[in-house]
Prior knowledge:
- The chain is an alpha+beta fold.
- The chain is built from 9 helices and 13 strands.
- The strands form 3 sheets. It has a 7-stranded mixed β-sheet, with helices on both faces. A 3-stranded antiparallel β-sheet has the order 4-2-6.
- α6 (215-226) packs across α7.
Amino acid sequence: MPALGKVITRVDAKSKVTGEAQYPGDYNFDNQLYMKILFAGFPHGIIRSIDTSQAEKVPGVVVIYTAKDVPNNEYGLGSPDQPVLCGPGSNKEFGDHVRFVGDQVALIVAESEDIAIKARGLIKVEYDALPVISDVEAAMKDPKPLVHPDQGTNVFCHFKIRKGDSDSALKNADVVVESVYKTPVQEHAYLQPEAGISFYDDEGRITVVVGGQWVHEDQEQIAHALNLPLDRIRIIYPAIGGAFGGREDMSVQIVLALASYRLNEKGINRPIKIIWSREESMVGHHKRHPYIIKNRWGATKEGKLTGAVIEIIADGGAYIYTSPKVLGNATILCTGPY
């Protein structure tokens, strides 16, 4: 192979070190609008009302959208269990429930980011509080309260791998070592917070310029939520700005497309831009799963491993999305190279 032993320059190295590379937040178009999102800020509850009347009076506010404005108010990888916007008027059962502080409640589109922020602060939301579920083991044992009332359980999946007779292996081992390990929730903290811009292109497609990890999945989730064919949605990934698994889920993709779609219905075809602050990023996007890992390893006096029993519990948080894939990988690899 001619490349072996040679130093190969990354194709994107020069553009990134010189500042020429364009990240989602760097994209701007003439006559663009700006969006901000009202997050729930509430860990678990039912939204009884959303009052946007005062926010709509702020000069420069173009439109405010809530759950009633989402054509198909759901998304999710494998299981569409997450509302695009939480609140009354959703076509999804229990779409008025919020399940973590980062649930999205309303979109504000305005002539400037400052105007959108001001209007966001004037939106009034009334909640009925529900019990907070913070202990994953307790949530598994007692199905009440349910994170998702329509599921009947708080367990989203259960993988089992059995090979040989582990009970006998441990019983006959010279030594058995047991331990419980816990890993915390982890923020990915990539350099570019979530950002993007959406518009209708010359072929009439809703185009979203955004950072992500699964471009076709972004397209599918947007099309599903808007009840549109796939070929009506175009996703462009420029330089990503870091991800580390933290951009596998949706953040601004669907809501940007939703705003462009609804404004187009009003005859308004202006690009819409959003950049999350670092605080909004930490509140609004999913995190690396915390784990409880229970180990029992058996070995001979000579140090040969004879068997292992491992139980892994992953806290999937409020919504499933990639959790079955992540837990599946952990289950397959839990014994390491052995």
